[in-house]
Amino acid sequence: MAKQILIVEDDPIMRLGMEHFLRSRGYEIMTCTDGKEAIELIDKMSFDIIISDLKMPYYDGFEVLKRAKSVQPHAYFIIITAYADIKDAVEAIRQGAFDYIAKPFSNEELLIAIEKCLHFQKLENEISQLKETLKEKVVFENIIGVSPQMQQVFKQISSVAVTDAPVLIQGQSGTGKELVANAIHNLSKRADKILVKINCAAIPENLFESELFGYERGAFTGATKTKIGKIEYAHEGTIFFDEIGDIPLFLQPKLLRLLEDHSITRLGDNREIKVDIRMIYATSKNLKDLVSKGLFREDLFYRINIVPITLPPLKERTEDIPYLVDYFLRQFCKKFNKPNLKISPHAFDVLMSYSYPGNVRELKHAIERAVILAQSDTINVQDLPQEMRITGNIEASCMSEHIPLEQSIKCFEKQKIIIALRETGGKKIEAAKLLGISRKVLWSKIKEYGIDEFFSLSQQLEED
Ligand SMILES: Nc1ncnc2c1ncn2[C@@H]1O[C@H](COP(=O)(O)OP(=O)(O)OP(=O)(O)O)[C@@H](O)[C@H]1O
Ligand SMILES: [Mg+2]
Q: Can you list the domains of the chain with their CATH numbers?
């Protein structure tokens, strides 16, 4: 498409000359004779380039520039000026004009100035396209991730979403399994249909069957009317079985049948009901282990494990942390109306070096809390949760030659305990196991070293 140029010039000879020349070069030209007319046109039409004289009746070139900057910030502005007024041209550039040409100028000079603008325009477009692609790479369906592992997950989601294949999402708690399930549904052909979520860890065992498969009137005492189950409810849509490892063994054959025949039967009925659903499963447990313990059927495991997607723990993809921090910071600054909150370099170091047993969820909560607590326009280390704050070069401080051996050993022991507690999110039993000592010994050492004073563990320790 031809580039649109507006010429604002009160001298008719110059105006006509430029118009004629540029038209002959294939540009689409509009002209006007003063600033007032130019402003009216700028309000109505969009231009790639505006070429304007500075000194004109009514509104001068500065007024035109000001208006153009506010209504068409992407248009390039070229000032025409007399040699005597170069100072004004410099001022115009300071106010956002792209370039100036001094009178008298040749057609060649005019053309060079225009081509320079168009070259810049092209570069700017390329940059913004690159930024868009980069953004797509950082965030995919509300999931942030630049690490190779997450990029791989994004690819897997894209390719599996369009099929109707069952998907098994594996990963520790807080790694984003539910986000992935949402993404698969949203990118599938069932996106405008329902996504039914079932948390298998939250349904009491005796209610499982009726919740999932529904029941006929009279199926059991209290079944006064027929009720359809969640699976039937998901007909034509997607069903997400969260924590599938917690599904009781006795129901697993029914799930296998659902997978193989796409059919179910309601409790108290033996009619077969066909359902059209896409199935997504998630687990934070190791299903293979459950299979070997006899808690999960092997045939069901193989049937749902056809397309596995595994989300790595956050500590294995630290390059995602800065992007997650930025994302959550924006989100919570907006929510709590604290714009422009920054993170201090020290607080950022702490966030980068923590091990995140609770994965992304833990990071998200830490940022939310920090945004609420921040007293100034900066999030400092003390705004972060206690368990994150203990950092530092541990070995170096304990190995100093100025410290006597016994003290050095104690220092080392204390640091080891702190690390173990941090790794386990303050859980004493797990930390003791990690250290190879009894819970009692750990407790006495925590007291001896006064770790609970700054680690705020007391409450969690009582709970253990
Ligand atoms: N990569 C990510 N980008 C943005 N937010 C994320 C990401 N991963 C997780 N979150 C956020 O962290 C929280 C936990 O995620 P989600 O509920 O999907 O985890 P989960 O693996 O299902 O955890 P659980 O096993 O405990 O159910 C959510 O608030 C989610 O929005
Ligand atoms: Mg979940």
A: 4-131 (3.40.50.2300), 147-312 (3.40.50.300), 315-389 (1.10.8.60), 394-463 (1.10.10)
